Amino acid sequence: MTTKTLNASVAGSAILPALFAVVLGLGIITLAGHVQASALHDAAHDVRHATGFPCH
Predict the structure, then answer these.
(1) Contact 55, 49 (CB under 8 A)
(2) CB 48 within 8 A of CB 55
């Protein structure tokens, strides 16, 4: 394996996680922008209870 081939494969493998993070982030922003505020509050409240974090 030459150095040129090795550098190209390393650069190619770094793009996939970054692309996944961008798609995931945009999906979360889109979902949060379209859901009603009470649903977000209820979901956050349920997560707090599920993890044992006191919220009230």
Answers:
(1) yes
(2) yes
